User: What shape does this take?
Amino acid sequence: MQQIGIRRRTQRWLRNSLPFWLILPTVLILLTIQVYPALYTIWLSFQERKPTGWSFVGWANFKRLFGMGLFGESVGHTFVFLLGYAGLTLVLGFVIALLLNRKLRFSGFYVTLLFIPWIIADIIVGIVFRLLVVPDYGLLSGILQNPALFPPNGLSVLTAVPPRPWLGDFPFPPAPAMIYLILAAAWRALPFVTLLLLAAMQTIPREILESSRIDGANRGQVIRYIVIPLILPTLVVAIFSLTLSGMNGVGMVFSLTGGGPGSSTEVLSYMLYSIGWRQLEFGRAAALALIIAAVNWLLIGGTLRLTGVEERSR
Assistant: This one.
């Protein structure tokens, strides 16, 4: 009897602990690739590499960052890039999704073509867009360097001097290179946002749209009062994706502008790359990585509050 009791307790323990053993591989992977690097980054942000090894310096790395003029400039460039990139991509994606939602001929073929930019790596897109505007042999160089269209001497996108800022040191209006970077980034992200919004629009019952038209609503009113409220959660997901990818992406800046001309396209993510892998100051790079992570959380919280999803979900 005692052996039977022990066997039953063992079976009960195995049955109750089975969920833990099933998720254990995933937990170990997350600890390896997420938790440990995060904790190591926090430790590294308070260290400085010296000939004798790592030395604790406290908040010195953060103070050095905040004391750099380039840091404040990069914050401004990041804000301008995020606003232009997310806004342009979201508007164009919404318009194209509306067009594709209207049962057009060959709509499946259009969707397939639309998806092509999304499968291309950031660095490749940056190289292609750079080749388009390279002076002398770029596909668009003949148009851009025409003095009649861009007086007085034409426009060299990658080397043009930024215009004088309107608001103190805030980098607006942006440099031509920044505008071109926004266009390139929006072109690559457009397929994902378009297909995301198109899928959400196709879940709206046709009866609701038809009854609104019978009641006399025009197309603009249908979009404003029916389509947008019903796909609002998907819009929030799109904004999340665009904000986080724009905040953390470095490949396109690296291959398209290299942060130039000067520092007119040096966003925070590219500054992190420069400090960490060009200057090899890993302590200061880790401090900047923590600042970027905090900004990511602030952007997510701000997006939720602005869209009102947080209140509606309660």
Summary: The mean pLDDT is 86.
